[in-house]
Write a structure and sequence with these properties.
This protein is α+β, with helices and mostly antiparallel strands. About 15% of the residues lie in helices and about 25% in strands. It has a domain of about 140 residues: Pleckstrin-homology domain (PH domain)/Phosphotyrosine-binding domain (PTB) (PH-domain like), CATH 2.30.29.30. It is built from 7 helices and 9 strands; from the N terminus they run ββαβααααββββββαα. One of its GO terms (cellular component) is cytosol.
């Protein structure tokens, strides 16, 4: 979450309708796409969580400076929910932006930091009316590197659009509401910024791993990946279509080169006769592991 000191300008973005109407000259350069924009929104959040995020707390202007002087004990016991009014919301393909013109400050939130977003029904503080808002969980990691046992720190807030918010174009569904469109915009932009792959997800260290042929000019070697090495002369893999080139009807290796040395699954290479009546195979040997046929 980064502080921004100047208000975003609509001219700095490509409107979504314009972006969808033509093929861009490049998918890797050019201004970000503006998926949704609304002025005079409210941010509903617990005050203790707001005080723990100075960049977001600055949206309150001078009030934020006064409240920052609260003691730590007061913050811990304070479950007061407040609403910050007059906040402009920008959903762009680059980042999620909140800006307060009155406070002349805002925040820029990377989409991977938004761990959860959903539609929510709620009552705004100092109001009895129930409204719909965009509920968000935003990660707020500490400056120090977290340990493996640390849980990700996050705050929760809800963005509530003004009562007179209009539908943005294009309208995809007849049941769309402005808040639904805000949710869809955040969903679309979040999909453009998938979470980075953790090193532990790539290789858990259990058992050998293998690389793909494309990574080593067609030669499979031990390394990263998830596939066993191919058999020599197979042009890749042994499949049902080319198995007769490597094994005879009895399961014996007939292809050139050494037979595969990697472990095969249970029962691999075993040749069984066709089963006859009552679990007795055609060679006359009874299979005791099978149930006898009953009337």
């Amino acid at each position: 979450m980064e502080v921004i000191r100047s208000s975003p300008e609509a001219s700095s973005f490509v409107p979504l309708a314009e972006h969808q109407s033509r093929t861009p000259s490049s998918f890797y350069s050019g201004p970000p796409v503006l998926y949704y924009h609304s002025q005079r929104c409210k941010i509903v959040i617990l005050e203790r969580e707001l005080l723990a995020a100075p960049a977001l707390n600055a949206l309150r202007g001078q009030e934020a400076t006064n409240n920052a002087a609260l003691s730590h004990d007061q913050q811990d016991g304070d479950e007061k929910e407040i609403a910050i009014s007059g906040v402009d919301t920008w959903v762009t393909s680059d980042k999620f932006l909140l800006f307060s013109p009155a406070a002349s400050t805002g925040v820029s939130i990377p989409y991977p930091s938004i761990s959860l977003h959903a539609l929510q029904r709620l009552r705004v503080p100092d109001s009895d009316a129930e409204v719909q808002g965009l509920y968000m969980q935003v990660a707020t990691p500490d400056a120090g590197a977290p340990s493996a046992d640390d849980e990700e720190e996050c705050l929760t807030m809800t963005v509530v659009l003004p009562a007179d918010a209009a539908l943005a174009e294009p309208v995809e569904r007849e049941t769309d509401t402005p808040t639904q469109q805000l949710y869809d915009a955040v969903s679309a932009c979040s999909n453009l910024h998938p979470d980075p792959l953790d090193q532990g997800d790539e290789d858990d260290g259990d058992g050998p791993r293998f690389v793909s042929a494309e990574e080593h000019d067609g030669v499979f070697q031990l390394g990263n990946g998830g596939l066993p090495p191919p058999v020599d002369g197979s042009s890749g893999w042994i499949t049902a279509d080319n198995m007769d080139q490597f094994f005879d009807a009895d399961g014996n290796w007939i292809a050139a080169g050494e037979p595969p040395s990697f472990p095969l699954g249970p029962g691999a290479g075993t040749v069984r006769a066709r089963e006859g009546e009552n679990g007795v195979e055609e060679n006359g040997v009874e299979d005791e592991t099978k149930w006898r046929k009953t009337d």
